[in-house]
C-alpha cells in the first residue's frame, strides 16, 4: 500500500521551481490534493499538463523569472519576501539533445540557476529544507548499478552540467555562516507520465506520431533506461522532503524502478503503439550525432531501506495511464483523469 503523509503536508508552504514543467506540475497536483499551499517559480516553456489543465489556478502565487540571470529584476524578492517550509528545486534544462545544441544555456540554467536558489535561500533564511532534483546521468560509469557513493563524471554537456550542479550543492552544504540550510539531492531515472510534451523526449515524440498517424523514428532503439512512473518518482521526492524537514539533515538518494530497468526504447515504443491501438511503424535511425549512454542503471536500496520507498507501477501500467491521459478531450476530463491517477496511486 502506498500512503502519503497528508498530516505532514497539510498547510505546509511549499515553493516549487520549475512548477510549469512536467514533473513540477504533477508534484503540484499531488500537494494540492492534500491541502499544501503551493508557490511556483519558473521561466520559459510550459509542459503539456500545465497548459492542458490551466495550471495557474492551482497556485497561491506564481513567479516567472530566469533563475540563471543574476540581473533578473524581482527574482531576489521571491526569496527575501517569503518564508517557505520547503523548496523543491526542479527547474532545469533537462534534455541531452538541447544541451548539445545550446551548451552554454544548459550550463547556466543547471549550474548557476541552482546557485541562485541556494544562495538566496541561505542569504535570506527563506527555508531550512531544500530538495534538489539532479539525474541518474551524473555517474561516471552509467551502466553500473551505481549507489550514492559511486564516482561522478559527465560525458556530454547535460551530464556535465548536472555533475557541476551537485558540486555547487556540496559547496553550500559546507557553508558555516548560517549552518542550517539542509539540502537533499534526488537522482532519479527516466520518468514517464501523461502531459510531458518536452521536445525530443521519447514519449513526446511517440504521442505526436500517434496523434498524427505517422511512423515513429527512434534514434537509440536498443538503449536501456531506468524507466519510472511519475507517481513512483514523486512519492520518493515527498519522502526525501519529509526526512529532510524532520531530521534537519540533507542527504542523497537514488530512485530507480527495478521492475522496469531492463526495458529498451524500442519495447517502450511498441507497447505505446499497441495500447493506443495504432498501426504506425517503428523506424530505427541509422545513427546518432551526439553521445548518449546506451545503458543507465541505479541502486536505490538506500531509499528503500531508510525511507521505505518502493516502486510499484509496471511499464504496462505506466503506458496505459499515459494513453488514458493523452486521449482526454478537454480540460475538465484531463483534470479528472489526473486526480484519479493520483488518488488511485496513493490509495493502493
How is this fold's topology laid out?
Blueprint: H1 6-9, E1 13-17, H2 22-33, E2 37-42, H3 48-53, E3 61-64, H4 75-80, E4 86-89, H5 96-101, H6 103-124, E5 129-133, H7 157-173, E6 182-188, E7 191-192, H8 202-212, E8 216-218, E9 228-229, H9 230-247, E10 252-255, H10 265-276, E11 282-284, H11 301-307, H12 315-326, H13 331-346
Parallel strand pairs: 1-2, 1-4, 2-3, 4-5, 5-6, 6-10, 7-9, 8-11
Helix pairs in contact: 6-7, 8-10, 10-12, 12-13
Features:
Rossmann fold, single chain, alpha/beta, two-stranded parallel sheet, 13 helices, 11 strands, globular, 348 residues, seven-stranded parallel beta sheet
Strand order of the largest sheet: 3-2-1-4-5-6-10
How many individual β-strands? 11
Largest sheet: 7 strands, parallel
**Would you identify the CATH architecture of the domain at 6-191 and 229-258 and 290-313?**
3-Layer(aba) Sandwich
Approximate helicity band: 40-55%
- N- and C-termini, Cα separation: 5 Å
CATH topology of the domain at 6-191 and 229-258 and 290-313: Rossmann fold
Q: Beta-strand level of the residues, as a percent range? A: 5-15%
Oligomerization category of the chains in this entry: single chain
Shape descriptor reads globular
Amino acid at each position: 500500500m502506498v500512503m502519503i503523509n497528508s498530516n505532514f503536508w497539510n498547510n505546509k508552504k511549499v515553493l516549487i521551481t520549475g512548477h510549469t514543467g512536467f514533473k513540477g506540475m504533477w508534484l503540484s497536483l499531488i500537494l494540492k490534493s492534500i491541502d499544501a499551499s503551493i508557490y511556483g517559480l519558473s521561466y520559459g516553456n510550459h509542459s503539456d499538463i500545465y497548459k492542458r489543465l490551466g495550471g495557474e489556478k492551482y497556485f497561491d502565487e506564481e513567479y516567472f523569472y530566469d533563475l540563471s540571470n543574476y540581473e533578473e529584476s524581482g527574482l531576489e524578492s521571491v526569496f527575501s519576501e517569503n518564508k517557505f517550509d520547503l523548496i523543491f528545486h526542479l527547474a532545469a534544462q533537462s534534455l541531452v539533445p538541447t544541451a548539445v545544441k545550446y551548451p552554454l544555456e544548459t550550463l547556466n540554467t543547471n549550474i548557476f540557476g541552482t546557485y541562485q536558489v541556494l544562495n538566496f535561500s541561505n542569504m535570506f533564511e527563506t527555508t531550512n529544507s531544500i530538495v534538489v532534483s539532479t539525474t541518474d546521468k551524473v555517474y561516471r560509469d552509467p551502466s553500473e548499478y551505481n549507489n550514492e557513493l559511486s564516482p561522478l563524471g559527465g560525458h556530454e554537456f547535460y551530464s556535465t552540467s548536472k555533475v557541476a550542479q551537485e558540486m555547487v550543492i556540496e559547496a553550500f552544504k559546507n557553508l558555516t555562516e548560517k549552518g542550517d540550510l539542509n539540502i537533499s539531492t534526488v537522482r532519479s531515472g527516466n520518468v514517464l507520465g501523461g502531459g510531458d510534451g518536452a521536445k525530443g523526449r521519447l514519449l513526446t515524440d511517440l504521442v505526436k506520431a500517434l496523434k498524427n498517424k505517422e511512423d515513429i523514428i527512434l534514434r537509440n532503439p536498443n538503449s536501456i533506461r531506468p524507466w519510472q512512473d511519475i507517481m513512483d518518482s514523486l512519492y520518493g521526492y515527498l519522502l526525501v522532503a519529509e526526512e529532510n524537514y524532520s531530521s534537519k539533515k540533507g542527504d542523497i538518494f537514488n530512485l530507480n524502478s527495478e521492475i522496469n530497468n531492463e526495458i529498451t526504447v524500442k519495447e517502450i515504443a511498441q507497447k505505446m503503439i499497441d495500447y493506443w491501438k495504432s498501426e504506425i511503424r517503428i523506424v530505427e535511425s541509422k545513427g546518432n550525432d551526439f553521445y548518449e549512454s546506451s545503458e543507465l542503471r541505479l541502486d536505490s536500496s538506500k531509499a528503500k531501506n531508510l525511507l521505505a520507498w518502493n516502486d510499484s507501477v509496471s511499464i504496462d501500467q505506466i503506458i496505459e495511464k499515459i494513453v488514458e491521459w493523452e486521449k482526454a478531450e478537454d480540460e475538465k476530463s484531463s483534470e479528472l483523469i489526473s486526480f484519479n491517477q493520483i488518488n488511485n496511486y496513493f490509495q493502493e
